[in-house]
Amino acid sequence: MKKLKILIDEMDDGWDERLQKLGFDAFSVKKLRVEGKKLRTDYSVINYAKENDMILVTRDTESGQACAENNLPYILLDNDEIFKIALDKINEF
């Protein structure tokens, strides 16, 4: 079985390190830019994830929609998802 690779969009830089500590093969868009990768646009980020067989984790709704339209794996952490998490926590009380 192939090891899961994860690309963390720039808004959540640092999650890559946290995931790595848990054993995941995770990378940060921000850190990849520092290494010289050309990842300035949403298209470039999505294409990089596709070319490297990665799941994109993003808060960018447009990036999530682009992934969905092109059958690319992604996790969208938009306001709706955050609201669901908050509502679940509220309902615990």
Characterise the protein shown here.
This protein has 93 residues and is of the alpha/beta class. The protein has one domain (5-91): Rossmann fold. Helix content is 48%, strand content 17%. The protein has five helices and four strands, in the order βαβααβαβα. It has helices spanning 15-21, 29-34, 42-51, 61-69, 79-91; strands at residues 5-8, 25-28, 54-58, 74-76. A four-stranded parallel beta sheet has the order 2-1-3-4. The mean pLDDT is 94.
Topology:
Elements: E1 5-8, H1 15-21, E2 25-28, H2 29-34, H3 42-51, E3 54-58, H4 61-69, E4 74-76, H5 79-91
Parallel strand pairs: 1-2, 1-3, 3-4
- Content-based structural category: alpha/beta
The level of helicity is: 40-55%
Q: What is the number of strand segments? A: 4
Return the CATH architecture.
3-Layer(aba) Sandwich
Give, in order, the helices and strands: EHEHHEHEH
Features:
single chain; 93 residues; alpha/beta; Rossmann fold; four-stranded parallel β-sheet; 4 strands; 48% helix
Condensed summary:
The protein has five helices and four strands. It is of the alpha/beta class. The protein has a single domain, classed as Rossmann fold.
